[in-house]
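Dock oxa(dethia)-CoA; give full complex structure.
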Amino acid sequence: MLRGRIISTGSFLPENVVTNYDLERIVETSDDWITERTGIKERRVVNNGQTASDLAYEASRIALKRAGLKPRDIDLIIVATVSGDMPFPSTACFLQKKLGAKNAAAFDLNAACSGFIYGLHVASGLIKSRMHKRILLVGSEVISKFTDWQDRTTCILFGDGAGAVIIEGTQEKRGIYSTHIDSDGNLSELITLPGGGSMHPPSADSIANRLHFIKMNGNETFKVAVRTLTEIAHRTLEANNIEASRISLLIPHQANIRIIQATAKRLNLPIEKVFINIHKYGNTSAASIPIALDEAFQTGRIKDGDYILLEAFGGGLTWASSLIRW
Ligand code: UT7
């Protein structure tokens, strides 16, 4: 049986660090509040005009180099993002140009913070069906440009960054065992970036009403997140007939330490088996899981044969999970 396998990872974080103390000078907040309610201590924010495709390029270059591949070896590029360079063309096409990946088709995928696992779902299906041979999947976000730096309920949460993986087919007993995706459009109002689309095209009014910035009902999102993540993670384990105790590492979307802890508890996973880097980067949306995956692998937290469980949720609402055998 052919299945997709992640053969290489890479990530890139902008250099500029914004700490909670920096935010204390911008909005009425405190390091204590942010740390206690979210687990975030600092985040990275681009400060030199870098775009989502720039960060995606850096992460992809690393992943390609580690795999010993050239950009022309890639036949599909998928970029999961909600903060792309432009509404169109796709950020994936800008990335293709920067890499010189002339043999690839390229498109973007919008599932907000669940975008990377949605991308894994698409990529693994295309590999299994033999429609593509080698896919570059990237999560890249420059959320800071859509952050309302006057809104203390959202500006403390997000950060910029990118993570990339390369996926190939394998007949071995490892790779992407399953992917599961869900959404509920009835909850679309919980996290939005209302301006700039056909509903609220750019206008003097849309700017005056701050519609080009992220809006979020954090409290409601929080409750839905814990419930849906627990359900989809259990479903993923059942689909593979595997007990939670056999999971070596849970890599959750890094949105809030309390969501991460609550979900791990409901899965009966000790916190030592959960990868956490939210304190360093905040919520990097679609980039959060591939950045965490890369860090986990590079720091020796993932070994050959390990079962890795991924889970994410985000705007849409969307949520997703995947079981990988490394
Ligand atoms: O990737 C998917 C994206 N979404 C999420 O992950 C969001 C999930 N939600 C969350 O992470 C949390 O709901 C937040 C961190 C956003 C908020 O934490 P919370 O514990 O749900 O706080 P809250 O919204 O219930 O607010 C509690 C209080 C409020 O004051 P009052 O009304 O009780 O007087 C807020 O005004 O905290 C206040 N508050 C703040 N205080 C200091 C809200 N933001 C801040 C802040 N600093 N930055």
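Observed: Residues 177-325 form a domain with the Peroxisomal Thiolase; Chain A, domain 1 fold (CATH 3.40.47.10).
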